[in-house]
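During the no-cost extension, the postdoctoral fellow (Dr. R.K.) reprocessed legacy sequence entries with the updated structure-token encoder. One reprocessed record is reproduced below for audit purposes.
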Amino acid sequence: MSRLARLLIPAMVMTVMLVAVIVILAAAGRALLTRPKTPASAIRAALNPEAKTYDTGRMKDNEPCLVCHLDFKRETITASHQKAGMTCASCHGDSEAHRADEMNIIRPDVLWGRAEIVPFCRQCHKGHKDPAKLEAFHKEWDGKRRPNGRWVMEESVCTDCHGVHAIVTGEGNFK
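Re-encoded structure tokens follow.
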């Protein structure tokens, strides 16, 4: 192989890799820019203010989501809501673009901010069955980390105590 070829081949490989990175970043940027910036509750109200969920009825079970999120099959919140007929789409919309994205760049149609979790859950769950038990739980766990990795604080939301419904990254940090 000539000296020129030895110099050009690595440069060409680097160029192809750089172009691939640019294409991936452009797709990620486009996904982030097209993702709704409004709160989930506002999106639901615009679609159907009477509906308690985002489910269009096209997803009959959680199987399309469990292809990637296999750990959610046994996750408490997912499993108990599935038994009650609520699929992932009930909370996150059909998320067809997200499900088709093998590079995991596109987010689900609906993601919940902490301030929106309690009002959404309270549509079906009006409150705790035993307020005294809840008070005792808070006294025991306040300021401590639960086995699911979440801290119990005065401003905790439903998912801080119920289940481990989150995508864990790296060192156990929740997205």
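Residues 100 and 106 are 9 Å apart (CA to CA). The chain is about 50% helix and 0% strand. The remaining legacy entries will be reprocessed before the final report is submitted.
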